[in-house]
Design a protein that fits this description.
single chain; 584 residues; six-stranded antiparallel sheet; twelve-stranded mixed sheet; alpha+beta
Amino acid sequence: MHQVPIRPHSVSVAEVIPGDLVALSGEDVVRQRWFVVMHTLPESPETIRVTLRPPLGGVDRDELLARGREVTVACRRLDVAEVPLVTSVPLDGVAFRDGDRVTSLRAVDPLADEVTYERRWGVWHRDLDADGGEPVPDDEVRRWAGDADREGFVVRHEARPASEAALVPRARRVVVTGLGAVSPLGVGVGELWQGLLEGRHGIRELDGEEFAQLPVRVAGVVPVDPAELLPRAAARRMNRAAQFAVLAAREAWADAGFVEGGTLESGVDPERVGVSLGAILGDASVLVGGDRKLREKGPRGVSPLTTPMTVPSQAASQVSLDLHITGEARTVTSACASGTEAIGEAVDRIRYGRVDVALAGGAEAVVTPAIMASFASMRALASGGVDEGSPSRPFGKGRDGFVNGEGAGVLVLEAEEHALARGARIYCEAAGWGLSADAHHMAAPDPSGNGVALALRRAVRDAGGHVVDVVHVNAHATATVEGDLAEAGALRAVFGGRAVPVTALKGNLGHLQGAAGGVEAVAAVLTLHHGVVPPTVGSVEVDEAMGLDVVREVPRELPAEGDLVLSNSFGFGGHNAVLALRRV
């Protein structure tokens, strides 16, 4: 019954009849504590025994009341046959399990709504996907049930089914079995992870003559020439981004337990393996160099490799060639969200049986004078040098822009049954992903953060989880003034008052553009695998406006009460992509 009591007024007990909605005191009226008169029975010339029941259902209580006593009626008469007689079952001996539900209804309030709590990670949450207040322990839920009848509540317990609906067809589970990275911290996943844990950065001064006139001359540059790590003939046919991608893919392939050389040598059907890499431009220097040779030497001076080495898809095609992968080789271009979106696309391709294995991530090499000059003209680049640490200050006070960077990060994704069949080591589950678009501006983020929040929620939902399951966020956090504020606002909107540990890697690496999502996903996987969150570098002092639990100075142990880690990537034009990884 959801009807507001109308024209409440005082009457004597002698005047009430069955069906009246009454409050026994003025305090009860204020507290919305009403009862339906079920029966009246004169007990003496001065008293009447009145049987009362909460209007939304509950147990009866008898009151012996003086005939002349004043009570409040709500001028609302109910059909007593429609008011249910129910009692709450004690829960003292019940063994609770995660997934159980408890509903609580304040039955004495005609306007009350039933509230549902679900048990997750050993405590009860009012809302698994929003800030529903502090979690409630088991003992408190048992107390609710024990006090329910006396306090005018109805409490019900709904046990989680012993087994999920196994007959419902489900998509295949996708797991991460291999990692590869080339970053400003060095070549290899080991160099990346050790540098993150130690709080080092790989941002350097650009000393080439072509950078001399630029207003900003710092970038996250890979410290090794990738061409020197590849056969000379092969390296000459790859642009710099493709060289990064091949090196990262080879490392990931070997880390997953496959044999050097590729699919055929590993005994894997090449048609059941795919490549999915993100890139914005790939390697902008090739096109710029071709144009320079055209002006200096004419058409004959332009290499026939200029066009195939210019296209953003070069990295994916070179990985496909190098490892003899024929299932598919896709390239995703969605600004700085490219790497994360490429991983998400690969997750879906495995989930729904298109391929069994995929190398997914991103590769980029855009530390070129023209790109640097363009970002500087936009006033998007950090203005500091490297003498006093990283000039990139994610979430920090005084942040003034990002640091351009380069590199590649690749995951080996695999159908779980495929990985188990070959006895592969599993880092974690690639559980889900989410996309959204800001539809706000070609370069500036939507300050509301609504698009980012939508992508976060979609990633959690796609992973089959809830917001309370998230134990860590690897933030995009480019260290731009408005971008960090928008992301922080979105995280607060999604997590409410819950402090989720957040870290950002662009103080270590710079912004790797289309490769950022790939490298940061590698770090997120390692965070889950090792149970350690690396610190955020560059932010001596976090901006109070962020309102986030930013991990700083030293690594932090990953919280145990949860199993999801999110890796965020957001790009110019409002591209938002979030990857959800689950602890196994």
